[in-house]
Design a protein that fits this description.
By secondary structure, this protein is α+β, with helices and mostly antiparallel strands. It has 15 helices and 18 strands. Helix 3 (120-134) crosses helix 4 (158-173), helix 4 (158-173) packs across helix 5 (180-195) and helix 10 packs antiparallel against helix 11 (369-388). The longest helix has 23 residues, at 342-364. The two termini are 39 Å apart.
Amino acid sequence: MSSPVEKQPPLNTFKDPLATTLAAHDFFEREERIEVARAPGRLDVMGGNVDYTGGMVLQSLLREAVWVAAQRRTDDVIHILNPGAAQYAWETSLELRTGDLSDPAGLRLLCNKKESLRWLSYVLGALYFLKLHYGGCCAGGLNLFIVSDLPANKGVSSSAALEVATLKAASAAWGILLEGIALATAGQWVENVVVGAACGIMDQAAIVLGENNRLLPMLCQPCRPFPLVRLPTGLRFWGIDSMVPRSTTGVAYETARAAAFVGYKMICRREGLYVTPEQTSGIPRWTDTRWSGYLSNLSPSEFRSKYERWLPESLSGQEFLSREAEHVDPFTSICPDSQYPVRAAVRYAVEENLRVQMVSALLRGRLSSASLQLIGEILCQSHAAYSECGLGSEGCDELVARALRAGLPGAKMTGGGGGGVVAVLGRSGDRPAIHRIAQEYGAEHGTEPHIFEGSSDGVDTFGVHTLQLSSRRDAQ
């Protein structure tokens, strides 16, 4: 076990919201170390639903972030304070003991008692992960203080940011080094196993590995990052909130995800391939000898020539269950009465993977007007594919249409779909047009949407900062 890398600036060097909020609460023990981690939100430029099918994704980081400050205690009490939770009518504090971190089912039961407690599943899940995997290193309790200016339920990975920041700060307080892909995988494990969200690793990996003003290309097999992409001079992405909330525990997202695995299983059966549990994976999954369990490894040309017309456009859960012995996605279930958009979900898995690779290659080259138009068209194709999978949103469609009418190259829905934030591509000089689009959209919908602009470093680049508050006598 190695000690975390430490940075020791004074408290006032941290930008708001942490310094201001922390100063207003007498929460931590004086003269005891405080470990601070910061996890930004992410803007899904492309690939929002191929992380679970093993595709390539392209992610950017936001300026808004979640901050977690952790301090080790000598007793076994865990005291959590999140003053900002009040704005969502959530519980702002919780006190429990390390022995209460006993099993995922118990944590889900605690956090699902009331809607106002559900956010705590990401925090307690992170602490449970550390206790489960690092055992004796997690001696003593913790004081955890949480501050965020990253809006929740917008599709910009506020939940992933919360769990990753908690993992980073708490592990540092307990003297554990947790970073890189191991940290991202831990975050995915928390969502899959404790929270019960059927997410891939895209959000967590982007938040951990990303850097300011860079795009992170990553092949989700299970997590293979490629060199970061610097945007060509003058090119920018913005995010505009459609004000339609979304979640990876939503019915539409889980139906589209399940449909992809239904199609994958049907194709494997047609090819005589056995699909079996992967024995060495930290996150439960299934595999085969040809595509290694990743539907996105199927090429678009092979899909078009062999499977597209053969796969059903829609298949009921009952029909699938009568044909197949089992569903090969550990994190969704098949409802007999539901209809699954099998053909569109498989098409998205193979074609979005190609679209992401094309955009990544174009952005690494010399940007011309023709290549910018091509990137914009590819973004629009990606957006249209959401609706084919049942993940469309009228609000997002409207924002995309407004962006195109304003002369911007392209725009698309982000993340799991069904609402959330629209990513808009443009040049630096297009900022007034972006704000005008948001204002006009807001005027018709009763309130102006949040605009995500600017970027910041990911969790590992930020590192762990160590603070020590002065004694009360010194403070006086």
